[in-house]
Amino acid sequence: MKSAAAALAFALLAAAPAAVAQSGPAAPAACPVSADHVIANGGLDRSRAAVASGRLTILAMGSSSIEGVGASRRELSFTPLLEAGLEQRLPGVEVTVINKGIGGETAKDTADRLVREIEAGDPDLVIWQLGTNDILRDRPMDDIFADFRRGEAILDRAGVDVLLIDPQRLPEGTTNASFRGRNPALGEMARLIDLEGGRVGYAVLHRFDAMGAWGGLERGGVGPDDLHLSDAGYACWAAVTAEGMAAALR
After folding, report:
1. Count H helices, E strands: the chain?
2. Cα-based distances in Å from 23 to 20, 36, 85, 241, 247
3. Which of 63, 80, 230, 245 is positioned for an S-S bond with 105, CB 3.0–4.6 A?
4. C-beta separation of 157 from 123 below 8 A
5. Are strands 161-165 and 203-205 parallel, antiparallel or unpaired?
6. Coil, strand or helix: which one is 116?
7. Virtual CA dihedral for 59, 103, 237, 112, nearest 10 degrees?
8. What is the DSSP string of 130-144?
9. Measuring CA to CA, which residue among 131, 128, 135, 146 is closest to residue 43?
10. What's the mean pLDDT in 156-180?
11. Is 176 helix (H, G, I), strand (E, B) or coil?
């Protein structure tokens, strides 16, 4: 499945070179790929040791963008492309990304199942994508971060590394009344996640900021429902994540 995911990613790149990026200076402007969007915050020691040993296991937790809703095929969603992208950038390392995303999930829902999923997956690194559904459901910030800190206690007891992924952007021109005007609140959520990551020593991927540079992608990499990413959006997000993670793990 890993080689198939890589082949599909490269096929998508060839079919739409202006929409999908690889690492390096030749990345098209529509999807600029930079390691700068991943901030290690002094963490990732266990993951670096795993890379040095030749095998890295990642547990991906979160909602529909982790699950892969919106991709035309499972192989073109975030986790398979991240797995392939990391193996491309970390030669000789076997990378396994376990997809445990559930559409509609909030920070509370993720924290509720962290123990079970960590015990089952035995990961070196947990990716926790959070914030989008919490904001769209108007959950109070105090409640969101109470759930985050409950999850933090579980993650720290497990001794795993953590990469937080902040909210996505929504199309500015959306006609969906539930989504219109939400980007400022999503941006504030991203800012607070960044602060929390620095406070506790978790790595952070600045997805919200990265998507701000995807102006050359149709609908900014978001599909026709104005919420879930398109194939090109997933490819760009996976490339940005793999580039930043690989730089931090070498």
Report:
1. 10, 6
2. 10, 12, 9, 11, 11
3. 63
4. no
5. parallel
6. helix
7. -40
8. -SHHHHHTT--HHHH
9. 128
10. 96
11. coil
pLDDT at 18: 38
Reported confidence tier of residue 15, pLDDT bands at 50, 70, 90? very low
Q: How far apart are CA 179 and CA 172, in angstroms?
A: 9
- Please tell me whether residue 109 adopts helix, strand or coil conformation: helix
Tokens 């992924």 — which residue? Answer: 165
State pLDDT tens for residues 29-63: 678 899 999 999 999 999 999 999 999 999 999 99
- Residue 82 structure tokens: 């991240």
Contacts of residue 173, defined as CB under 8 A and 6 or more positions apart, other chains included, come to: none
Chain centroid, CA 67 distance in Å: 11
Name 101's Cβ contacts closer than 8 Å, sequence gap at least 6: 60, 61, 62, 63, 64, 65, 66, 67, 68, 79, 129
Q: Which residues fall within 8 angstroms of residue 242, CB to CB, at 6 or more apart?
A: 23, 81, 82, 85, 86, 88, 89
pLDDT (average), residues 143-151: 98
Q: Which residue has the tokens 């879930």?
A: 228
pLDDT above 70: percentage of residues in the chain? 88
Which ranges of 54-182 would DSSP assign to H, the alpha helix? 64-67, 78-89, 107-121, 132-136, 141-158
pLDDT at 30: 79
Higher-pLDDT residue of 109, 173: 109
Using one digit for the tens of pLDDT, what is the confidence trace for 197-222? 999 999 999 999 999 999 889 999 99
Whole-angstrom distance, CA of residue 79 vs CA of residue 67 = 8
Judged by DSSP in three states, 85 sits in helix
Let me know the angle formed at the C-alpha of 170 by 189 and 136, rounded to the nearest 5 degrees: 55
Q: Which residue has the tokens 């790149």?
A: 13
